[in-house]
Amino acid sequence: MRIGINVTPSTDGIEGLTEAARGFDSAWTNQHPGGWDPLTLLTAVEGGPPELGTAIVPTYPRHPVATATEALTVQALTGGRLTLGVGPSHSWYIAEQLGIPYASPAGHTREYLEVLHPLLRGEHVRHSGRFFTVDTRLTAKADPPPVLISALGPRMLEVARDLADGTIAVWVRPELVAEHLVPGLGAGARIVVMVLVAVTGDPDGVRAAVARDFAKVAEMPAYRAVLDRAGLAGPADTVVAGTEAEVVRELRRFRDAGVTDLIVSGLGSPVDRARVRDVVLGGVR
Predict the structure, then answer these.
(1) What is the number of other CB atoms lying within 10 angstroms of the CB of residue 238?
(2) Letter string b/e over residues 107-128, b meaning 16 or more CB atoms within 10 A of that residue's CB
(3) Which of 121, 194, 198, 210 has the most neighbouring CB atoms within 10 Å?
(4) Keyword annotations for this protein (predicted)?
(5) Distance (Å, whole) CA 69 – CA 137
(6) Torsion of CA 258, 58, 69, 162, to 10 degrees
(7) Cβ pair 106, 167 in contact under 8 A
(8) What is the pLDDT along the chain (285 residues), one digit of tens a residue?
(9) Which domains does the chain have, with CATH numbers?
(10) DSSP string over 196-240
(11) How far apart are CA 66 and CA 39, in angstroms?
(12) What is the pTM of this model?
């Protein structure tokens, strides 16, 4: 299991992204509403991990031609280290904040990938579908990056199995990985899981804070469905928190369940996150 780190300007600062990623197999960043562009941010991670990933870039606001163009540019600038993670995001952001109809997210993602992949390969795309009409090719030259999607439900897992290299999942436990994601994706797929982690003597306090800070997660249909599937009340139930030994043991369970890539997102102060970093790099592999 490869070990990655979630890096964000809000906790690390743009100038601190390189140091935050040091020692890990991969560094990942996300598209937050109103926040920094994740693909551009990855070009600020100098040297360091052999893989730089987005987890994820929303599909609805960004035409696949624009995404492919930027992805190939970042791939060239980073020496071929990009893994492109995309997904439909959520209705509260796409429809309510951006005013874009959030219609058929699985169908939209499938068609998005049907356009995206050949563009990344440098092919001329002629496509006329429900969501996109495209007749173009890109002149930017770089190796096409691997493409992952944020797939949790059965229909999105089917799209991932057919058209992507795997899934990026969050708010899941090892049991759901083994019983739902692995069989849903089939052999050879990458299963990338992001986990909130705290090394602490007060795990209940950490989970209470996550339950408060991430309360909205439990109301989002895609996340609510996967939490219900796993019998979990909310996102706090997916947090890995405890002593160093407990954290290492719990994270290894993800490896045993079939996770190929673990993205660690440390909780707490800079000192707390540094402790998570040291424990993960020293004990999970």
Answers:
(1) 24
(2) ebbbbbbbbbbbbbeeeebebe
(3) 198
(4) Oxidoreductase
(5) 10
(6) 40
(7) no
(8) 999 999 988 888 888 899 999 999 999 999 888 889 999 999 999 888 999 999 999 999 999 999 999 999 999 999 999 999 999 999 999 999 999 999 899 999 999 999 999 999 999 999 999 999 999 999 999 999 999 999 999 999 999 999 999 999 999 999 999 999 999 999 999 999 999 999 999 999 999 999 999 999 999 999 999 999 999 999 999 999 999 999 999 999 999 999 999 999 999 999 999 999 999 999 887
(9) 2-283 (3.20.20.30)
(10) EEEE-S-HHHHHHHHHHHTGGGGGSHHHHHHHHHTT-SSGGGG-E
(11) 12
(12) 0.95
Helices marked H in the chain: 9-12, 17-21, 38-42, 64-77, 91-94, 105-120, 154-163, 174-176, 182-185, 203-213, 221-229, 244-257, 270-283
Query: Both tokens of residue 211?
Result: 């339950």
**Which residue in 208, 225, 102 sits closest to 171, CA to CA?**
225
Number of H helices, E strands in the chain: 13, 12
Structure token digits, residue 225 = 């469905």
